[in-house]
Amino acid sequence: MKEAKRVAKNTGILYAQMGITVSMSLYTTRLVLAALGAEDFGIFNVVGGAIVMLTFLNTAMAAASQRFMSFAQGEGNFKKQKNIFNISLVLHFLIAIIVIILLEIVGYFLFNGILKIAPERLDVAKLIYQFLIISTFFTIISVPYDAIINAHENMLFVAILRIGETILKLAIALFITYTIFDRLYVYGLLMASLSIVLMVVRQIYCHRKYEEVDINLKKYFNKPLFKEMTGFAGWSFLGSSSSILTNYGQGIVINMFFGTAVNAAQGVSAQVSGQLSTFARTMLKALNPLIAKSEGAGDRILMLKASFIGSKLSFFLLTIFYVPVILEMPYIFGFWLKEVPEYAIIFCQLVLIRNLIEQLYITLISSIAAVGNIRKFQTYTAIINFLPLIAAYILFTLGYPPYALYFVFIIYSLSNGLITLFFAKKECGLSIKEYFKDVILKCILSFLIVLLLTAIPNHFMPEGFLRLITVLAVSTIFFFIVVGLIGLTNYEKNMAKTILNNVYSKYKTKL
Fold it and tell me: pLDDT at residue 453 above 90?
């Protein structure tokens, strides 16, 4: 009950924050696309778009450091937490240096024959890439601070920081709309500067708030722990960095064959996907500390139970938004954007389907990390991460359209899920049969039923605001009916009720 209340509190804080940030972020995208135009927006997404990927890098690497922090908390070892923080600082500084060198080498080849960018915009694109490199360095060295915040489950600070970031991004969008300077250059500079400012705020907060944030490398260095963390961080970085390169590589491959105009469509779909997928990341952020602490306390049963519930809830929390958005996307995009880039709708629909597939096993990745033996898992993950880009390149060479890339990534996500299930069974003792029956089958069946029932008014009513409202109402009603009857077990229903009641009572007292 105590754990359920804590998860409820953290989830409630984050979802309140998301209600504000999602709507503001989508409006910001509309302003940025209108201000830059399709070509410059495409350039930013293929060159400076990796700045957006830094969020994923930060989250993935912080999860690795957080695993040790949360594990030590589960053991009740405060001194070890100080050791972990100091060692983490050293490790991430070394990683940052290596990444910067690699980015500079890659940049040379990108701007000398690979990327298709108009000659008059090439100098600005190169500057944006340098902004990215600077931002990358500060992002990596700030990872230990994010790990501390996540390990302490301080979701209120995360929510406040996220809201502040969203407001500042909106201010940047408004500024470039009216600036007399080169809008693409100004946008790239301000976005990189914003990431650095937010990192400094995190560091100042952690030093004032948490006792274990005590930098003394000589006093808190522990050689056996350093070796253990180096191995874990290295393998974790292999998986997360290969995933980032793959996601960033999508834009490069598309640019090579179709130019910056299609990159603009990719950027729009990434914005929508990123905002709606925040709901899944929220659930994972609230459950990750519980998974790691349960393993640290030796409670493998609770850890696996949290993984089961986490995957189902994150899948259903996306389903309630995804179903109406997938069906009504042409109308929504037409209303949202002044000019909808070609392929943006089909790109976004396929990305949302891929996101749903990944929710079916996303918490199992955290469980494998909690156990700690990740070398083989990350090696297989890194290898499979590069296959979609190779397959997409071949398909584009044969004349396939741009959206073929997203079909390839759907197949990739399914393959990655099979690998995750295999290692979850091997390392965590997961019953694949039980997981398939209780999580995968129920999630897919629930989604298909809600989608088919919601498609009825979508098919028979004329496109417009009335149909959108009807689709939203129908999908919401049938979602709760179907998930209540099929998706959740009695235990999970009771836990969901407990979480909702605690969230309601928690915020009712503050109103």
Answer: yes
Report percent pLDDT > 90 for the chain. 11
- Please state the length of the chain: 511
Neighbours of 510 (CB within 10 A): 5
Of 294-298, 444-448, 473-477, minimum mean pLDDT range: 294-298
Cα four-point dihedral sign 375, 381, 384, 388: negative
Contact status, residue 84 vs residue 68, Cβ threshold 8 Å: yes
| Of 427, 445, 424, 426, nearest in space to 435 by CA | 424
Query: Domain residues for 204?
Result: 2-508
CA distance 196 to 190: 10
Mean pLDDT score across all residues of the chain: 78
Q: Is the dihedral of CA 118, 123, 126, 131 positive or negative?
A: negative
Total structural domains in the chain? 1
pLDDT value for 333: 86
Give the C-alpha distances (Å, rounded to integers) separating 451 from 238, 301, 390, 407, 475.
37, 34, 33, 20, 8
Read off the pLDDT of residues 250-281 as tens digits, 9 standing for 90 and up: 888 888 888 877 888 887 787 777 777 766 66
Quote the DSSP letter at residue 1. Answer: -
Phi and psi based region of residue 222 (left: phi greater than 0; alpha: psi -120 to 50; beta: remaining): beta
186 within 8 A of 192, measured Cβ to Cβ: no
Alpha helices in 76-154 (DSSP H): 78-109, 122-141, 143-151
Residues 6+ away with beta carbon under 8 Å from 181: none
